[in-house]
Design goal:
This protein is of the alpha/beta class and about 220 residues long. The chain has one domain: Uracil-DNA glycosylase-like domain (Uracil-DNA Glycosylase, subunit E, 3-Layer(aba) Sandwich). The chain is built from seven helices and seven strands, in the order ββαβαααβαβαββα. The longest helix is centred in the middle third of the chain and has 18 residues. The protein is globular and about 45 Å long.
Length: about 220
């Protein structure tokens, strides 16, 4: 950055001084999207956020349009996922997901042994737009991913989608009796702001449980 300093003493000529200062490059942060802009991301997919040594794999239902627009899972403003992770002590820095994760955020996240994927891949405005068949096919695909990645714990965020996709209509939130591709399987509450039954504190308690099971806290 170039700064121009101008100074003078009374009765003396004006002096100009050039000062070069190094600073971090400015980051453009979108303040929001119009409905029309978000609609252009319908049916897009979002890359999984998974490293080579994932221990705790969180599984969303499917990407929302804001997630597709920012290429950041659980990005919609008001989603409690990242605040709850921090509250639980699983991450120790603030992630501004609504603006999109930075490369540094992603690197730190996967180095922590955390990963994120989804049951269904395509982005929709509401999870209710997914068909039962999409959820069931997504669960089959998830099984292949889990077998390849071999996390210590899988945590599905959303009981309704889990019941449909995994054909477990009577399943309840918490640790499941059966393993999933040889991996400990949990169902935790959906962090969406639409889930009025949960708070950041209650979500943090659930996330701390699965992180403890994965050996991360």
């Amino acid at each position: 950055m170039l700064l121009v300093l101008v100074y003078a003493r009374p009765g003396e000529p004006v002096v100009f001084s050039l000062l070069f200062v190094w600073c971090e490059p400015l980051r453009f942060v979108p303040v929001g999207f119009t409905r029309a802009e978000l609609e252009t991301y319908r049916d897009r997919t979002v890359p999984d956020l998974v490293g080579d040594d994932v221990r705790l794999l969180f599984v969303g239902i499917n990407p929302g349009l804001w997630t597709a627009a920012t290429s950041t899972h659980f990005a919609y403003p008001g989603n409690r996922f990242y605040p709850a992770l921090r509250k639980a002590g699983i991450v120790d820095w603030q992630i501004d997901a609504a603006a999109g994760m930075t490369d540094t955020d992603r690197e730190r996240f996967v180095r922590r042994g955390l990963g994120i994927t989804n049951i269904a891949a395509r982005a929709t405005a509401r999870a209710a737009e997914l068909s039962r068949e999409e959820l069931r096919l997504g669960a089959d695909s998830l099984a292949e991913r889990v077998a390849a990645w071999k996390p210590k714990v899988v945590a599905v965020a959303g009981i309704t989608a889990y019941r449909t996709g995994f054909a477990r209509p009577k399943a309840r939130t918490g640790k499941q009796e059966e393993l999933f591709e040889g991996v400990e399987l949990w169902v935790v509450p959906n962090p969406s702001g639409l889930n009025a039954h949960e708070t950041i504190d209650s979500l943090a308690e659930w996330y701390r449980l699965v992180a403890s099971a994965a050996g991360l806290v």
